[in-house]
């Protein structure tokens, strides 16, 4: 048996999230991938992912690991697996790793992007790949709020109640926003993210940018850990898991660009 680390890209539109949900027929990334591995290798192959993306969330660099006795050479594994996968999920890279490697626990950080169409104009082509936010944004306020969120903080105010995590302290190495025409792209790199934390951050940045919140208010909300006092939870379709970082330094150069 050998352990493989596989990097995936998927369109989350028609997936009910990453994780399999027992007792349901919901289509999930994990379920589809495991079914495809059975067709490829003839064996049940449980997988472990670096993160559990929600329904509708996309990935350009999701990472999974699994054990396999397949004799397919690692350099041909992605091509063989892609022949069994549906069009909305593909394997980009496969490497053989040490048995100690764990897709989630070995990760040192993640990078997310969120894409916003900031216009009152209708949107058809990109409706499943961005969030249309029709209110004017002051990018100076957005960037000031982003600076408040950068660094190590207790992000309890940006988490969903009922989470089982032991600590809500996370370190965001960078929180950036850039605008080109009607498009705004948010980029966040951190050592970890709480459930729906990225979408709550984006909602807060948007509400700050349109004047519903001030950067000072966001700082107080962050310091007091008051859930429900910040911005709204931005919808999933604008969110992309771009990169999972590991100590081995492997980087797959893929990203979501402003159209």
Number of strands: 10
CATH class of the largest domain: Alpha Beta
Query: Which series of helices and strands comes N to C?
Result: EHEEHEEEHEEEHHE
Approximate shape? globular
Straight-line N-to-C gap: 43 Å
Model regions low in confidence, pLDDT < 50 over at least 5 residues: none
Per DSSP, what share of the residues sits in E-state strands of 2 or more residues?
25-35%
CATH architecture of the largest domain: 2-Layer Sandwich
The residue fraction in helices comes out at 10-25%
Oligomer: single chain
Protein model, in words:
With 259 residues, this protein is of the alpha+beta class. It folds into two domains: 2-97, 2-Layer Sandwich (Alpha-Beta Plaits), CATH 3.30.70; 108-246, 2-Layer Sandwich (Alpha-Beta Plaits), CATH 3.30.70.660. It is built from five helices and ten strands; from the N terminus they run E-H-E-E-H-E-E-E-H-E-E-E-H-H-E. It has helices spanning 29-41, 74-82, 139-149, 197-209, 215-224; strands spanning 2-10, 48-49, 58-68, 89-97, 107-117, 131-132, 151-154, 169-180, 183-190, 239-246. Strands 1, 2, 3, 4, 5, 6, 7, 8, 9 and 10 form a ten-stranded mixed β-sheet that branches. Helix 3 (139-149) packs antiparallel against helix 4 (197-209) and helix 3 runs parallel beside helix 5 (215-224). The protein is globular, with a radius of gyration of 19 Å. The N and C termini lie far apart (43 Å). The mean pLDDT is 94.
Summarize the structure.
Homodimer. The chain is of the alpha+beta class and 259 residues long. Helices cover 22% and strands 29% of the residues.
